[in-house]
Amino acid sequence: xxxxxxxxAPASEAPPAEPPAYSRRKAIGLFTGIGLLxxxxxxxxxxxxxxxxxxxxGVVALMGTWxxxxxxxxxxxxxxPLVLFPLLDILSAHEVSTAYADHIVFLFxxxxxxxxxxxxxxxxxxxxxxxLSSIGRSPQLLILGFLSTTALLSMWVSxxxxxxxxxPIALAVLHHAASQGYDTTQGFGIALMLxxxxxxxxxxxxxxxxxxxxxxxxxxxxxLFPDAPDIGFFxxxxxxxxxxxxxxxxxxxxxxYIYFRVPSAGWQDNQAFLTQQLQDLGPIRGGERRxxxxxxxxALLWVFRKDIDFGxxxxxxxxxxFPHPHxxxxxxxxxxxxxxxxxxxxxxxxxxxxxxxxxxxxxPWGILVLLGGSLALAEGVGHSGxxxxxxxxxxxxxDVSPFVAIFSVCALMVxxxxxxxxxxxxxxxxxxxxxxxxxxxVDPLLLMIPATFAASxxxxxxxxxxxxxxxxxxxxxxxxxxxxxxxxxxxxxxxILTGLLYVIGVPAFGIELDSLPDxxxx
Length: 522
What we know:
The protein is mainly alpha-helical. It has one domain (20-509). It is built from 22 helices and 2 strands. It has a two-stranded antiparallel sheet with strand order 1-2. Helix 12 (233-259) packs antiparallel against helix 22 (479-509).
């Protein structure tokens, strides 16, 4: 769901020394960012640009440089608007701080609590083994089972946690298969490990809370286009689930049958081995059962909050039972679930509840601050007029085909996120894409949606995502193997995203292809 840095070490361990080249890059990035901000402050804006928009561009340049070069922790960079926006009269302290408490942030906040509860009670591991123990009659199907299970977990649990959950199970299967005489070095082991990393990132696009770029998009879209209709959980999943499913199947087929050609000779059925691991967990406990029930209830409340229109049939959302349905958001459900986790007894020990506050130390609080910073940046870009100015400068792109624009945006995001944080990159490009769409006179969703999804589809380098880094660090995959397999998958994901947006995304999100929607400011 979330993306954390792969180099995070336990508090008890001393952090590893930084390579000199990395330290130099950070120093260069730090002073370059400050220099760019000063340049914007000490020079005047173009004739057709307001001073406040010019200063906002300077803040964007500073934050963008620090994010890309990792001059400081990305969360620290996310705090910059709290200082610079009031000082430069872009937004008041009240206005900018409000962004850090946006309902989108609390949606992710509540989802974190559910994920921690799943991990605490080992529900995620039981679900994984339940699925895998029913598959395994061939090495190809077992890999598909691992990819599908990891993607399902990543819909609700962070991509990092999903990888860490599944990696020991995968290593156990590798060891068991090798002990039975199957040669795991002939494609099976590499395809399994790479597929594990890739599916952890892919699964996150299925739901609005699956990965930070999704939440960044939703927050930026709301800030930049306040009159736009709300994008509901079910509406997102109409596009997200088919996209993730097709990507998982495509990655599996590519790795198993095209790139590595996993052999079947010598394979021994692993179902008994996986079933034994499941039995070792023992019967489902009261805590697990209650977390499962609460998680399923939360998901259903998210999906059915808004009215669902099936054409001839319309299913009213439960929020319509209240006097002001628009006051109720998905964050309302998320925080209700979080509160209940602290109030519902585990059913195993007297006085024990599903969560305690001590469990919350595992929450990646920095991600919440970073999301708040991204929303503040979007608010500043929109309020200052920078977005409108950028859109007017892009009017020459009106003759470009929307298909070409979508393909270009997907390609840009996929290759950028090979080297930079996908959350930071999404934060930077959302206002730019909104302005570009205005310049092209196309629906902003036509560019912003594929860019958001493409941010999770970087498969080539260990630096691209935390799952890639974890699998690379396991020692079972070399850099050339990841680079070679990931290069082809990057191209494949760009083509799939571009096509799916037209086939599924346009009707799912109600995207207008021939004109600007009424909710876009002129």
